[in-house]
Structure prediction request, 198 residues.
Amino acid sequence: FFKIISLLSNFMNNTKIILYDCFDIYKILNELNEFLKFDLVNITNQNSLTSYIKNIDLYLIIQKRKELDDKNLIVLEQLPIKIEKLVEKINLGILKNNFNSKSNIKIDKYSLNINSREIYCENKKVKLTEQEVKILMYLVKFKVPVKVDNLEKDIWGYNENLETHTVETHIHRLRKKFIDTFNDNDFILSTKKGYLIN
Prediction:
């Protein structure tokens, strides 16, 4: 059992496993950590937890009853629990966490989730269209303004039937979402040479 767990844990050990107000479970996992190789931390109060997770990207919180509202949370409702079952829950949580993190792209102060097509900043989020995601993903690759012609060709597969204002219309709608939701007028800049993510 521990050989299998060790193999699984070796490729997933960049996720912090936070035991929130469950020191007894932390002690057990810590004793077995020679085999598990989890990156464990024990935290007992919510303020410490909030400040701790601000500085890390990949984490999983384990607690005995649901007190928090976090997407990376495992609640152990039925205790006692067999160690194999607990480790299985943790590994599944880490796999899900790793999958979700690969679909999140950092763009300046924003986090873009490609799967849900939502962009976040602090506690605010906005839904994007598929084309808007493509535009952002394209613009973020360049440090210089991108010409409208390039966007027409590479995003829309430019052809003669494309309306000349398609790019401008999409950029206008995208910029409006950033202004309305995040009060950010400067995220996508419009210059004489084209469009640029600031």
The mean pLDDT is 85. Helices lie at 2-10, 23-31, 33-36, 46-53, 83-102, 130-139, 148-156, 166-182. The first strand starts at residue 16 and ends at 20.
